[in-house]
TrEMBL record:
It holds the Pfam family ANTAR. CDD domains: PAS (cd00130). Residues 457-509 form the PAC domain. This is SpoIIE family protein phosphatase. PROSITE patterns: ANTAR, PAC.
């Protein structure tokens, strides 16, 4: 047993001897590299040969009573003039041993075959005198991750545990990578950050320094101390940054690969359908100063109108000075960290310095950066919204060019007529072939109005579709002449009015049946009133939606035969915004009731597009003017965004809403807005107000305020006084406003009361 122990001891001693010899061999090799570097300095300065330079070093060593290695380190140190040999405060810069260690570390790192050997050299020669016990070299990934590339002072098992750090994990190295600056942790136990080597020294200090090269952050060098350490002096911090830059050389790609990346990116950019630039870094004194435009693709258009050749090869900030700022900072961040940028509908200050909405992509590939952008086409977006609104309303547009016979239909027009998008459109002059024979006379009269008299016209007829269905369709057309009065084209729209037609037929049939006797007339009034009250009940239970409490009231006219067209609506849209609206159709009876249904439902459909109140009322005016029979009316429309508390509103000939805040009642501004259906083209303005908790908003129709014997302004003042004079629950407050209204007309009244919070 004793013999076995002796054998193990001899084996351990042999292993330790071999390790020591290996360290000595590596140290000697590192010393030789430093000597060779010093010889090269003398060859260049003295214009002598290598043998003469070696003899000169030996001579200087003898004269200075130093070793050749110390002389070599002093020579390199004085020639380099960098910050690598800056020592901590307790040392002197002229200490030969410290200079030897710093310069030996430099030569060893530059000669290292991998990052692990570089970490060992940095720790052995430069950081051990500073009290450090561990060095970890992390390689940065393009996604913000870290991979352990080299280490010294860590147990192999510990290194395996930390071979990869995913993006988003908070460690000292991740912080240094994200901030692109050195991070100093005085005490890991106090800060609670996980990192490699923490098991051995849970209370130690850490320094994490970005490993930069040519403006890029290729990784992070993390230095560890076994005990808490105060923040270093500036000269030590500069020394650590110089060592990190040395370590970056072991993480750098070969230059040939970078050139290949730039060439490949140029080919990729030429295949993109969007403007793209390939950029290469422009360095001065080892620092990133700008980017050179390596390649521009065929879709790139210079904002100043210069040819692409004038931009290709220029410096980015010289060609586009206004790109300095946010855009340059983003490109520099991607180049430095390798983290790609992908942003949709981003407010972007482009190369010309103009802020636009665009999809932007920036990515680094080797030593090159690819910048791609796509500016949002606002007309195309509005066209898509309009197409969506046309689909909801069953409306499709068309244009026929007289000279060429070319016919253009929108997608919805094919759907209305029951055709596929690949079918040939139907010319207006051939409409009688596709219509019921009883409608041929009306269509011929419509065609004469448009083509011969050159006036706008419309016609409703029964369309016999190829799929076998018969639909009631309305066509509106308008001739377009040139400056000389010759007919250039005809534009218009098709609308499927089948549902409206059968509603009108049913109402008309009811009306015809009940007009023979007084009893029938009274029955008609009762049916009309039922229709109105089915859509607009006298009162509904309070509605609670997205932070609002809403109460609605409908007060019918005192005389049942005077059924009006007052309406209200409260809808929570898919966007979580709340649509609030009230309106009043001109007139009474069946026409007013059906007009109310048309506009109320049309506004609901248009609101799905996400348009603002002013745009909604502009479109609603088009519906009232072109797609209905003489419907006129007023309306007020508001959209409340619960995420911001902002209420946007607009009016079309309607009284403005009333806002009650802190016991004071005021009318919102009287924005411009004309009667719906009065003119073909109108332009409503939009107002905006931020609602606060406790605020109340009142939307109403004019039946609440109209008096025959006093001006409208006096009636509104009375309403404001009534609204401010009571502060009970919302439902009681709403009833109070209705009860104390001094209106003396026989009109209907609709009220929508809203309370925030």
């Amino acid at each position: 047993m004793a013999g076995e122990d002796a054998g193990v001891a001899r084996l351990a001693a042999t292993v330790e001897r071999l390790r020591r010899e290996l360290r000595d061999t590596r140290t000697a090799a590192d010393g030789r590299a430093l000597l060779e570097l010093a010889k090269g300095v003398l060859v260049e300065r003295l214009r002598c040969g290598p043998a003469q330079a070696a003899r000169q070093i030996e001579l200087l060593a003898g004269q200075l009573d130093s070793t050749p290695l110390e002389v070599a380190a002093q020579l390199v140190d004085r020639v380099a003039g960098d910050t690598l040999s800056v020592l901590p405060k307790q040392s002197t810069v002229d200490d030969p041993a410290e200079v030897v260690r710093s310069r030996t570390a430099e030569s060893a790192v530059l000669a290292a075959e991998d990052s692990r050997r570089a970490a060992e050299s940095v720790l052995a020669y430069a950081l051990t005198p500073l009290g450090a016990t561990t060095v970890v070299i992390w390689a940065a990934g393009g996604d913000g991750s870290l991979t352990l590339a080299g280490f010294a002072g860590l147990a192999p098992e510990e290194a395996k545990r930390w071979r990869y750090v995913p993006p988003g994990v908070d460690t000292p190295a991740q912080r240094a990578l994200a901030r692109r600056e050195a991070v100093w942790i005085e005490d890991l136990a106090r800060d609670g950050l996980p990192t490699a080597g923490q098991r051995c020294s849970p209370e130690g200090g850490r320094a994490a320094i970005p490993a930069r090269l040519g403006g890029r952050v290729l990784g992070v060098v993390e230095v560890g101390w076994p005990k808490p350490v105060a923040a270093p002096a500036p000269q030590v911090r500069r020394q650590l940054e110089s060592l990190a830059e040395l370590c970056a050389h072991t993480l750098e790609h070969a230059p040939a690969t970078e050139v290949s990346w730039a060439a490949d990116l140029a080919d990729l950019a030429d295949g993109l359908p969007d403007p793209a630039l390939v950029l290469r870094p422009y360095l001065q004194d080892g620092q990133l100063r700008d980017f050179r435009i390596h390649h521009v693709n065929a879709d790139f258009a210079d904002p100043r109108g210069r040819p692409r050749e004038a931009v290709d090869g220029a410096l980015l900030l010289e060609a586009y000075p206004l790109a300095a700022g946010e855009l340059f900072d983003r490109i520099e961040h991607v180049y430095a960290t390798g983290e790609s940028l992908r942003a949709r509908r981003m407010r972007w200050r482009n190369l010309a310095g103009v802020t636009v909405v665009a999809d932007v992509g920036i990515s680094r590939h080797g030593d090159a950066v690819l910048l791609v952008w796509r500016v949002e086409d606002e007309p195309a977006r509005l066209a898509e919204l309009l197409r969506h609104a046309q689909r909801l309303g069953g409306v499709g547009g068309f244009e026929e060019r007289i000279g060429t016979g070319e016919i253009t239909w929108s997608q919805e027009t094919f759907a209305v007529c029951g055709l596929d998008a690949t079918d040939e459109p139907i010319p207006l002059v051939r409409l009688p072939e596709y219509a019921h024979r009883d409608d041929a006379v009306a269509i011929e009269r419509f065609l004469r109005t448009v083509f011969e008299r050159r006036h706008p016209g419309s016609v409703a007829f029964r369309l016999l579709r190829p799929d076998g269905l018969t639909r009631h369709v309305k066509v509106v057309a308008e001739p377009v002449p040139d400056a000389a009065g010759r007919l250039l084209s005809v534009r218009g729209a098709y609308q499927d009015i089948s549902a409206q037609h059968w509603t009108e037929v049913a109402l008309s049939a009811t009306r015809d049946q009940l007009t023979h006797t007084e009893q029938h007339a009274e029955e008609q009034n009762r049916l009309t009133l039922r229709l109105q009250r089915a859509i607009m009940p006298d009162a509904q239970p309070p509605i609670t939606a997205t932070g609002l409490r809403i109460a609605t009231r409908y007060r019918p006219a005192e005389e049942e035969q005077l059924v009006g067209g007052d309406w209200y609506d409260v809808v929570v849209l898919p966007s979580k915004q709340v649509l609030l609206s009230v309106g009043d159709i001109v007139g009474h009876g069946i026409q007013a009731a059906t007009g109310m249904v048309v506009l109320r439902n049309a506004l609901r459909g248009l609101a799905i597009t996400g348009a603002g109140p002013a745009r909604l009322l502009t479109w609603l005016n088009l519906v009232a003017y072109h797609l209905t029979d003489e419907i006129r009316g007023t309306a007020a429309c508001a959209l409340y965004d619960p995420s911001t508390g902002v209420l946007r509103w607009a009016r079309a000939g309607h009284p403005p809403p009333v806002l009650v805040r802190d016991g004071q009642a005021t009318s919102l501004p009287l924005l411009p807005g004309v009667l719906l259906g009065a003119f073909a083209q109108t332009c409503q303005e939009e107002g905006e107000v931020r609602l606060c908790p406790g605020d109340r908003l009142l939307l109403y129709t004019d039946g609440l305020i109209e008096r025959r014997d006093q001006p409208l302004e006096d009636s509104i003042e009375h309403l404001l006084s009534v609204a401010a004079g009571m502060s009970g629950p919302l439902e009681e407050w709403t009833d109070h406003v209705l009860e104390h209204s001094d209106a003396n007309t026989v009109d209907d009244t609709c009220v929508v009361a809203v309370q925030v919070g």
